[in-house]
Design brief:
Length: about 400
C-alpha cells in the first residue's frame, strides 16, 4: 500500500472507531494515526495523546520531493488581511500542516515582494506586486509584464500555485515568465492568503469556493478583470492554469466563468465538484471521489490536462476525470498519440478543432513537468507543460 493510501486508511479508520467516544479519546486516536504516518508535529500536548508504540516511533516521516530554494526566503510580502466576510470555520480556513504535507505541494517561503528578482529565473520584464479587493476579500498577486513592445492588447495567463507555494516560487518552477517574454503574454499569479487557508491552499474542495460570484472564484475573476483593464490585456485571450490545489481551482474557474477564460490548463489537479469538505477531498485525492458534474455554460472551455501515472499525492484517475468533465458534452472524436514517456489523447469537435488534450505522463509523480528545480514541486524531465499549455492556449 502506498504511503498516502495507508495514511488515508488510518485517518478514516480513526474517525470510524472514534464514533460514540468522548472527544479526548477521539483526539488520541487521530494523533496515533498521524504519528504512524510521521506527520505528528512536535507541538502536540503530551497529555492529549497516547504514548506511541515502538513501531510508530520508528515510522519514517514523509519526505519532501525537493526542498524550497534558499532564495525564496528573501521574497516576502505582507499577508492580505483576513476576509471580513469570511465566517467559515471549517477545514478550508484552518487546514492543518499535516494535511498540506500530504495533500499538496512542497513548502514555499511566503509571497513574492517588490524586490528585484533574477531575470534568468523570472524573466527580464517587470514582475509587479499588487493586490485586489472585493466583497469576497483581499488577495495579493504578482504580474509579469514582458519587455518586448506589444503590437496590441496582450494575452493574459492566470497561474494558480499549489499549497505552501507562492507566486515567486511558482513562476520559477514553471518558467512561465520566460515563455511569456517570448510570446508577449501577461502572466498573473494570484496568491492565496494564510488567513483564508493556513497552508495557503486554494479551497477547491469547499462548496463556497466552487461557484461563480462568491468566495475565491469571485476574487480570482475580479482580479483577472482588473489586470485586463489596467494593463491592456486582450479580453478574448485570457487563460487559467494551475498545479495540484491550483489545478483544481483552475478547473473551477473554467467551469464557473466560461465567458472570461478561453482555455484552461490543469496539472495534477482534480475535477470540479469532486469534494465538498476536507474528508471528501482526501478521498478524491485517493481516487475515491464522487461523480463530478458536467460544467454548466453555453460552451465547454477548451482544456489541456497533465498528470503523472505515478502521482502518489493526487491519484492519476483524477487527470482523466478532468479531461472527461470538459469533453463529455462536446460530442468530440478522440485520437491517441504515443511518444517517449507520454500518451497524449486529443479531442476534436465536429469541425476538427482541438477542444481538449490529456497528457498521461508515464513514470511521473506529483511535479510540474518539464519545469525548473529552481522552484518547488517541479521537474526538468518530461514534456514542457508550460510550453505545451501556451501552444494550446494560443491556437484558436
Amino acid at each position: 500500500m502506498k504511503p498516502y493510501e495507508k495514511f488515508v486508511e488510518n485517518i478514516l479508520g480513526a474517525v470510524r472507531s472514534s464514533q460514540g467516544r468522548d472527544p479526548a479519546a477521539a483526539t488520541a486516536i487521530i494523533q496515533e494515526a498521524l504519528s504512524a504516518a510521521g506527520l505528528m508535529g512536535a507541538t502536540a500536548s503530551p497529555s492529549s495523546a497516547r504514548p506511541a508504540s515502538p513501531t510508530q516511533e520508528k515510522a519514517a516521516p514523509f519526505v519532501d520531493l525537493n526542498p524550497p530554494p534558499a532564495w525564496a526566503t528573501k521574497f516576502r510580502q505582507p499577508a492580505a488581511q483576513p476576509d471580513s466576510t469570511n465566517t467559515n470555520t471549517g477545514a478550508g480556513t484552518a487546514m492543518p500542516d499535516w494535511m498540506a504535507r500530504f495533500a499538496s505541494n512542497l513548502p514555499g517561503q511566503g509571497a513574492g515582494s517588490s524586490k528585484t528578482v533574477d531575470p534568468a529565473t523570472h524573466g527580464p520584464g517587470q514582475f509587479l506586486a499588487g493586490s485586489f479587493s472585493n466583497e469576497a476579500g483581499t488577495r495579493n498577486y504578482r504580474l509579469y509584464v514582458p519587455t518586448r513592445p506589444a503590437a496590441g492588447p496582450r494575452p493574459l495567463i492566470v497561474m494558480l500555485h499549489g499549497c505552501k507555494q507562492n507566486p515567486v516560487d511558482f513562476a520559477a518552477g514553471t518558467t512561465m515568465n520566460l515563455l511569456a517574454e517570448e510570446s508577449g503574454c501577461l502572466v498573473l499569479y494570484p496568491e492565496q492568503a494564510a488567513s483564508a487557508n493556513h497552508s495557503q491552499c486554494w479551497n477547491w474542495f469547499e462548496g463556497a469556493h466552487q461557484q461563480r460570484g462568491q468566495g475565491e472564484p469571485a476574487l480570482i475573476a475580479g482580479m483577472t478583470r482588473q489586470v485586463l483593464r489596467e494593463h491592456d490585456g486582450d479580453a478574448d485571450r485570457v487563460y487559467v492554469a494551475g498545479l495540484s490545489a491550483g489545478g483544481a481551482m483552475a478547473a473551477v474557474m473554467a467551469a464557473s466563468y466560461p465567458e472570461l477564460y478561453a482555455a484552461a490548463g490543469v496539472h495534477s489537479g482534480l475535477p470540479v465538484g469532486s469534494a465538498h469538505d476536507l474528508m471528501s477531498a482526501l478521498n478524491a485525492m485517493k481516487g475515491a471521489r464522487k461523480k463530478p458534474a458536467t460544467p454548466s455554460g453555453a460552451r465547454p472551455v477548451r482544456t489541456i490536462v497533465f498528470h503523472g501515472d505515478r502521482d502518489a499525492t493526487v491519484h492519476p484517475s483524477n487527470g482523466d476525470a478532468v479531461y472527461r468533465q470538459f469533453t463529455q458534452a462536446a460530442g468530440t472524436q478522440e485520437t491517441e498519440e504515443r511518444g517517449p514517456g507520454q500518451t497524449r489523447t486529443v479531442a476534436r469537435d465536429a469541425g476538427g478543432r482541438v477542444v481538449a488534450e490529456h497528457w498521461n505522463l508515464h513514470g511521473a509523480g506529483h511535479a510540474w513537468s518539464g519545469g525548473s528545480t529552481a522552484g518547488s514541486y517541479a521537474t526538468s524531465s518530461g514534456p514542457n507543460a508550460s510550453s505545451e499549455m501556451l501552444r494550446f492556449f494560443l491556437q484558436q
